[in-house]
Write a structure and sequence with these properties.
six-stranded mixed beta sheet; disordered N terminus; three-stranded antiparallel beta sheet; alpha+beta; 19 helices
Length: about 550
């Protein structure tokens, strides 16, 4: 009746009835699952994306793939959007979420084909999800607020996240940089972690293994005067938001001169306005760089412009000056070097100055970079990424972002979950216990069983991508985990291992969000009994002469 009513209202509508609609949803979810399946785990393969301009992108990051791929199927688009939202909320777990949604629909299709109503199955999904979330709270490893996580544990978390995106050698190198970066900005435990205080700077230079952590700031521009010092040690840093150039008036105005002398006087008065500001800056430099500090350098970083005459004056007094600094870097500079940013030069005192042990300029081709390093307890740092080409730099940047989020989640949750597929295997065993199944009434038990079996898609995929037989490993995991021990997959030997002892950890909030999202998405898709393409193609009214 519904499809005929739609056809009557819109003869051009396309309608899929109940069986066809459910089959399309399941096929779409499994199609997207098959695309991302090979990316999971450290042994996962890469995807090469080519856009319309023949630009290349090598990645195995689920969010990047789902964001960059051109997906036309409406159900696949819905799953992709929900999966990318998983990354926005938890920072990881996109690929795993797509796999779980596809597997839930696959397991549900078995019962639907036998005549079980989708609503009954989704009731079982809801019961299984609630029990799985309770089991996750029991299964996790909790740290107390007083003790907190040590650096080695955080390194294990970052290493687990990075190895799924990068080669092992490069991932191990970036692990300490990622952990030290988060610890540097998290010195005040009472405030939330702001990852925007970690600058990620890309430099197409040398190889990826030359990437490192800079305990300071790296700016992608340099001094604009050839005579300014290129390298200074033990520097005073002055951050300004003051214009050191002639500015036009905000209102339209005109000047009429009766003689050349009057014009010269006007130009002189305009210049005197800027010179007075420069004089106060130079006087501050001379006052602090005297006596025992006469060999110290002086660096001026201004958010606004500096004209050539002013640059010349500053260069003559040995001041390294940078103009038009980015607004985000002005805040980071204060966290790196200390000091207070000034909006006026009227009240300049030595107390507003920051300090940096080393400031130098690095020239790479036509690009200039300014490094501000050796700061005392910086609360903003820079991860400098190097690589031979653009797609390598982008791949490392995506991995570093995931690593930063993983460490941040671990510190804020104060809880971790053993990885390598250990939670999924243990949760399946927990859901299939007779005690829990008896608490679920009627046919909804089929939904619980489907949910439990769907969880095994994660360890199965890890085993397949590692080159091992998934059924053999599942049997071994089940035997070793009978006593309640957390056991995962060892990709090096194809045997089982204790993830906690090997330092393989998953984020608690990532798994929690995965369990919640996969059930909600699969439930919504199973409840769809009709797909209608009957929306308006355009809001533009048809021309009178067009055929209807």
């Amino acid at each position: 009746m519904a499809s005929s009513a739609v056809k009557l209202a819109n003869p051009n509508a396309e309608v899929l009835r109940r069986g066809d609609a459910l089959a399309m949803n399941i096929q779409s979810a499994r199609g997207l699952q098959n695309v991302l399946r090979s990316n999971l785990s450290p042994r996962g393969t890469l995807k090469l994306l080519v856009d319309g301009a023949n630009q290349l992108m090598l990645t195995k990051d689920g969010k990047v793939l789902l964001s960059q791929m051109q997906i036309t199927n409406p159900v696949a688009v819905m799953i992709a959007r929900a999966a990318t939202a998983q990354d926005d909320v938890a920072g990881d777990g996109t690929t795993g979420l797509v796999l779980l949604v596809g597997e839930l629909l696959k397991q549900a299709a078995v019962y639907v084909e036998e005549g079980v109503h989708p609503r009954v199955i989704t009731d079982g999904f809801d019961a299984a999800k609630a029990e799985a979330l309770k089991f996750l709270d029991q299964f996790k490893t909790q740290w107390t607020a007083d003790a907190g996580m040590d650096r080695e544990t955080l390194c294990s978390v970052a290493r687990t996240a990075l190895r799924t995106k990068l080669q092992d050698r490069l991932a191990d190198q970036m692990t300490e940089a990622v952990v030290d970066a988060v610890l540097a900005i998290h010195q005040d435990r009472s405030k939330p972690i702001d990852l925007f205080m970690v600058e990620i700077m890309k430099m197409q230079h040398r190889t990826a293994t030359d990437s490192r952590l800079v305990r300071g700031l790296v700016m992608d521009h340099g001094a604009r005067h050839p005579d300014m010092p290129k390298r200074q040690r033990d520097c005073f840093v002055l951050t300004l938001n003051v214009s050191l150039e002639y500015e036009k008036t905000e209102v339209n105005s005109g000047f009429f001169y009766s003689s050349a002398e009057q014009r010269d006087k006007l130009i002189e008065s305009e210049r005197r306005f800027v010179d007075d500001r420069l004089r106060k800056i130079v006087d501050l430099k001379n006052s602090v760089c005297s006596g025992a500090s006469k060999d110290c350098g002086f660096v001026l970083i201004n958010q606004k412009g500096i004209d050539p005459l002013s640059l010349d004056v500053l260069a003559k007094h040995g001041i390294l000056a940078l103009r038009r600094a980015k607004r985000r870097n002005m805040e980071r500079l204060q966290l790196c070097c200390g000091g207070v940013a000034q909006n006026s030069v009227d009240d300049l005192t030595p107390s507003v100055l920051g300090h940096a042990g080393l400031v130098y300029e690095h020239v790479l081709g036509e690009d200039k970079y300014t490094f501000v390093e050796e700061c005392d307890q910086p609360r903003s740092v820079t991860i400098l990424i190097k690589g031979p080409n653009g797609h390598v730099l982008q791949q490392i940047q995506d991995a570093v972002r995931d690593g930063l989020r993983a460490v941040k989640n671990a510190i804020e949750d104060r809880a971790l979950v053993p990885g390598a597929g250990a939670f999924q295997v243990a949760c399946r065993r927990h859901l299939l216990r007779p005690e829990f199944l008896r608490s679920v009434r009627g046919k909804a038990q089929m939904g619980v069983k489907a949910f439990a079996e769907a969880l095994l898609v994660i360890p199965k995929t890890i085993a397949v991508n590692g080159g091992y037989d998934p059924m053999d490993l599942l049997v071994a995991l089940d035997e070793e985990g009978q006593d309640g021990h957390a056991v995962g997959i060892d990709l090096d030997t194809g045997d089982v291992l204790d993830p906690a002892q090997q330092g393989i950890w998953d984020n608690y909030r990532v798994l929690r969000q995965q369990l919640h999202s996969c059930s909600v998405i699969a439930t919504n898709l199973l409840h769809v009994d009709e797909v209608m393409r009957a929306g308006r193609a355009s809001l533009k009214a048809p021309n009178p002469g067009d055929e209807q």
